[in-house]
Amino acid sequence: MVHAISLFVVMLGTWLLLSGIFEPFLLALGVISAAIVVAIAWRMDVIDREGQPIHITWRFILYLPWLGWQILLANIDVLRRVLAPGLPIDPVLKCTAASQTSDLGTVIYANSITLTPGTVSITVEGGRIEVHALTGAAMDAVDAGDMDRRARRVEG
To answer: Is the pLDDT assigned to residue 51 strictly greater than 70?
Structure first.
């Protein structure tokens, strides 16, 4: 029930944010629409812990500033390599271990790798993520495991 309520709140909040209309009649239509969609999702049995992961909300919010900083640092590195032709670009394709225990945790980790410029998650299979990196240094940063540990903390 908690997941259904949180889904309703997220849907209604998104509707309000995107519409920007606060007239009583339209607000009532928004509430009714969100309630109908939640009822359909409940009937289809698609509201679950992974579909509406409210259990990781605070840990994820604390993870985002660190991830943003890593994205900024990686952007600077890629920008330097593009603007300075003397800096090496030596692409690397390698598998790295993912220590997450849930699919959601693994997705958070793989997407974090992809969001960081210079690295892309290619495949995820059996606790391993195949990563393409622009440089060996970028791959070494992935292999160091700091992002893996932080993503594991997000999932709990």
So the answer is: no
- Domains of the chain, by residue range, sit at 2-44, 59-155
Contact residues for 57 (Cβ-Cβ < 8 A; gap 6+): none
Q: Given the structure tokens 């622009």, which residue do they identify? A: 134
- Spatial strand order in the sheet of 128-133: 92-97, 128-133, 119-125
Helices (H), ranges, 20-102? 24-44, 57-83
- How far is residue 114's CA from residue 123's CA, in Å, rounded to a whole number? 11
Closest CA to 63 of 107, 109, 123: 109
* Cα separation, 89 vs 131, whole angstroms: 16
Confidence of residue 24 (pLDDT cuts 50, 70, 90): very high
Of 99, 100, 14, the C-alpha closest to 50 is: 100
pLDDT in tens, 56-102: 778 889 999 999 999 999 999 999 998 988 888 889 999 999 999 88
Query: Which of 113, 69, 67 shows the shortest CA–CA distance to 92?
Result: 113
CB count in 10 Å sphere of residue 79? 11
Q: What pLDDT score does 126 carry? A: 85
User: What is the pTM (predicted TM-score) of this model?
Assistant: 0.74
